[in-house]
């Protein structure tokens, strides 16, 4: 009786381990630690560049980087500001591409 329980437990354990291993092998990590650190560095540089622009506010424009692709979001007062944010981000070393999702709200325009 104990032998049957042992065999059943081994069979279930082996299935669980092999199933988990196969599942883990199929999933690829989104980013390595080095890529994440590089993206974090790029994001920091983009944010600093936005802060340095007197016509832009880091409170209005957010940046996120994934594999060198910077995604800008937020809301600014003019289309020129949205374009300027994208141009500033493109000028940062390490940026491969910029996705400009910044929205324009004329109510935010400085008068």
TrEMBL record:
<dbReference type="InterPro" id="IPR007055">
    <property type="entry name" value="BON_dom"/>
</dbReference>
<dbReference type="InterPro" id="IPR014004">
    <property type="entry name" value="Transpt-assoc_nodulatn_dom_bac"/>
</dbReference>
<dbReference type="Pfam" id="PF04972">
    <property type="entry name" value="BON"/>
</dbReference>
<dbReference type="GO" id="GO:0042597">
    <property type="term" value="C:periplasmic space"/>
</dbReference>
<feature type="domain" description="BON">
    <location>
        <begin position="38"/>
        <end position="106"/>
    </location>
</feature>
<keyword id="KW-0677">Repeat</keyword>
<keyword id="KW-0732">Signal</keyword>
<dbReference type="InterPro" id="IPR051686">
    <property type="entry name" value="Lipoprotein_DolP"/>
</dbReference>
<keyword id="KW-0574">Periplasm</keyword>
<feature type="signal peptide">
    <location>
        <begin position="1"/>
        <end position="24"/>
    </location>
</feature>
<protein>
    <recommendedName>
        <fullName>Osmotically-inducible protein Y</fullName>
    </recommendedName>
</protein>
């Amino acid at each position: 009786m104990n032998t049957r329980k042992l065999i059943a437990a081994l069979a279930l354990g082996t299935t669980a381990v092999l199933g988990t291993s196969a599942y883990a092998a199929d999933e690829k990590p989104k980013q390595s630690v080095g890529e994440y650190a590089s993206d974090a560095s790029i994001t920091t540089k983009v944010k600093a560049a936005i802060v340095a622009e007197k016509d832009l506010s880091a409170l209005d424009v957010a940046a996120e980087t994934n594999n060198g692709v910077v995604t800008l979001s937020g809301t600014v007062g003019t289309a020129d500001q949205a374009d300027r944010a994208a141009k500033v981000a493109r000028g940062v070393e390490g940026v491969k591409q910029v996705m400009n999702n910044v929205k324009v709200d004329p109510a935010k325009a400085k008068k």
